[in-house]
Model the fold of this input.
Amino acid sequence: MKISTLRSTVETALAGRVASPFSFCDRQSPETVALGIPEIDALAGGLPRGSLTEICGPPCSGHTSLLLAALAGRTRHPEACALVDSRDAFDPHSAEAAGVELKNLLWVRCKNIDQSLRAADLLLQGGGFGMVALDVSDIEPKTVRQVPLHAWFRFRRIVENTPTIFLLLEQETNAKTCASLVLKTGMKTAQWNVTAGDAAMCLFDGVAVRAEVMRSKWKANPEAGFGARARWRQCA
Done:
């Protein structure tokens, strides 16, 4: 039996009960929105709606600044957003200073990975959010590795064909092919500001951080290619 015939048979049998199993492969490049950091937007082409995006990297590598930039852009739009905070580490004062409209943000404070996964599942199924961010970057990588792959696949399927951006932050990539876009962050060098005069001082002025596209299903910026990197300055 030809592939086209087999495919038509399967779709006819499933019609009216489930979405076409081939819809994810066939759909056009999704709508994207700017993350808010020009260097990253030029590299990745923005955040895709209806998709799972991973931002991974070690502590202090810049993924929190990417999260705040994304939340600031969406909550100012304005869109309702939700943050599932796996270790209750989110600082609303720093977020507000970064431009996040807290009145448009639902902050879900969790204590472990299980609570975080259940909360993300409920939020995605409920719908109505422009962005749902699951931050497990403060949980030990070996614990996050134990999350079964079908959990990430479930999240991808829930958010698919919706206007919601699902953002996953962790220390290393775990969602595999369920992620449409994977950004890896890393810290480069500290930057210092040396003042002149009799009381010369050397003050910490931020760090230079980098991001690398590890995966992009739609190749939003083909000229950059996989492994391309961007650098930007993260203020102190």
Remarks:
- The chain has a mean pLDDT of 82.
- Helices lie at 3-14, 23-26, 38-44, 63-75, 92-97, 113-126, 141-145, 149-159.
- The chain has eight helices and ten strands.
